[in-house]
Amino acid sequence: LPMAFRDVNARRHIGLQQLSSLALAGRTFLGPIKSCKFIVDESTNQSTLICSAVRLIESLDLSSAAGQLLNETIQAQNKEFKTGMSTLLFLVGAWSNAVVECLQQNVPVSAIVSVMSEGLNSCCERVQCLQISIHDVNKELCSSSVKSKPCQIVHDGLLNAQISVCFPEDVSASEVVIPRNSCSHQGDDGNFSKCLVSPLASFGSVASLDKPVGDKSTSLISGSGVIASSCNKQKLTHSRYFSTLRKSHFSSQQDNSQGSLSGPSADPCQCYGLGHLAMALSHGNQTSVKLLQSILAYQQERAECSGSTQFNIVEIVTCCLLGLPESYSCVSPGFVTLVSPEQATVIKNFEDKPLRILLMDGDLTEQYRHLGFNRPCNVRTTLEHPRLWEGRAGDLWLSSVLDILINFEVNLLLVKGNVCENVMERCIANSILVIGSVTRDVLRAFGEVTSAQPVTYLTQLNADCVGSGAQVELWKACDGRAVDLGELVPVRIKVQGIPLRTAVLTTTVASKVQLIEDQFWTSVYRLHHALNDKKVFLGGGAVELLCLSHIQMLSEQPLQAANKNFHSPWLAVSVTEYKSVVLQALATGWKQYLSVVMCNTAKAASELEACTSVDYHLKKAADCGSPSAYIWEEFRRGDLLRGGSGPFADHGEGLKVYDNVTAKTEAWRRALDLVLLVLQTDAEIITGPKTNQLLNSHVSSEFMFL
């Protein structure tokens, strides 16, 4: 070998080793069963529970260049997809180790870059045969719905009526208890509907309410977040007394409720299929998916009435409540947020009253200027007593703000950015509710239904900018009681016809607040990207298994370029060996991925046992003659990488596991691009940029195998 390559292999590649060390901490985040980690802040001694690569990288001290590149790569994946970061982090570590092993075998850097890049491109093309359209997935999920038992009679102590319910096969009627005092007839409509059906929510399937025979409409009760569909052939019948109450409490318009109830659906399988698709994409996160299913049912009904998009992610917001059990999590119409106890006192005077609302697209501070604002040039102000003048100017600005709000009779002010504390105090004293840090999507939603027009500065305000019809109330839990969490109080802002839905996420563990919110948004964005792609991958390790089979086939193919085309004799002799070694290094990442997932789910006692199982399926796929056909058949049977039970558990009978297409392949590409970038950077540091560029041009112009 030339002296330059000996120098590269003789010295340590610090960047690759740093990537491997950082990625090692994220191995437990792979698969449907994840092991969480506690991150402790040394400055405050507070701990946070994390279960994602994003939160892990944000918590680590990344002082090295490789660590910074890894952080930027994961943040880019998170910003675009909100999923696939754990896969990306793991493959970065696996491929970094594989590249180091190639270097130890004296494989040239340019050969590694060329073969790995072409190999990944070839695999991404090959796995396209494992894609399935969303329409086909919905049909399959709808046709494979769980069969229910014959209807059984359950006595409802609240209504003094008997209700006939069709339960799943593993649930008996004796397990159902509807508490007599859990709800009030005179309480909030949504609270009543949610509490009434909540005892059935834990069973995972509830039928449509009081529907005629042959009615194929779909209903959903959001307190449980569980979809009811005629596809399940489950039906809930009841006495005439309950039917009378249903007309007043279970209407399709639930803007005054804390939960949501969907109305008829033109396609009986559509909402049912999307709900189960969300579950199949969640990989076991059932709590978040039940909330998402509730939102899906509402948006499905609204799409049929208004012609809007079937799943609109901008109409979803979250509010995390610390201090309530997780069973209190629900979906609430409108915008739920947290305010101070002082602001809550103002809200008590506003309940059931229409308010005049103002939207501000900026900060409500004296120093705020919009993006692109240019201060006048060559202007200098000299003051004799600057502090005194600043105090007077601040009082004048504060007074002018309050005068403007009072003159236009503004009761509610939603601000996109920060709010000055002095303004907040003066507004509370004058019974004006100001809420800051409101997202742009929330402002847009309120603007559409209240006719309010956002302004950047209060000086731009006129009568046409102020909207009307908003209502504010204290948020109530499923038992109908307002919740007081001490330092913060949850409130709900609603308007008739607003499409906004808030997923209220509750927990009693402070360290889990960020975790449950991340899990919910992951489920939301997986469904969002699946609908955008209009297709999904077969899950359960099917895609990675086909990549391994394809790489095995590529390794056995002869080189297309003849050895005589290579000017360097040493490269012509070793090029065949390089190809096989590098391709196997690429395959190592996916093989380790499958092995670690099987170990994390306790379906393999060790990585050696898991690798043996993977090799077994690779041999079966090769003997079949068509690896993709073998994988399809095993996926349909539910035996792919299972050995009877398997690591990728289904979420119910007949419900398969699926993966996002674009998010998965982009995670692969970003992981490999990062590893190869660090590899080439290390090589330039060791050998010098000129030598590395010479070797790159010398090898990459001649090294082709596909």
Automatic annotation (TrEMBL):
Query: What Gene3D superfamilies does the record tag this protein with?
Result: GroEL, GroEL-like equatorial domain, TCP-1-like chaperonin intermediate domain
GO molecular-function term, one example from the UniProt record: ATP binding
Q: Which domain of life is it from?
A: Eukaryota
InterPro entries annotated for this entry? BBS12, Cpn60/GroEL/TCP-1, GroEL-like_apical_dom_sf, GROEL-like_equatorial_sf, TCP-1-like_intermed_sf
This one is known as: BBS12 protein
Q: Name one GO biological process term.
A: photoreceptor cell maintenance
One Pfam family in the UniProt entry: Cpn60_TCP1
Gene designation per UniProt: Bbs12
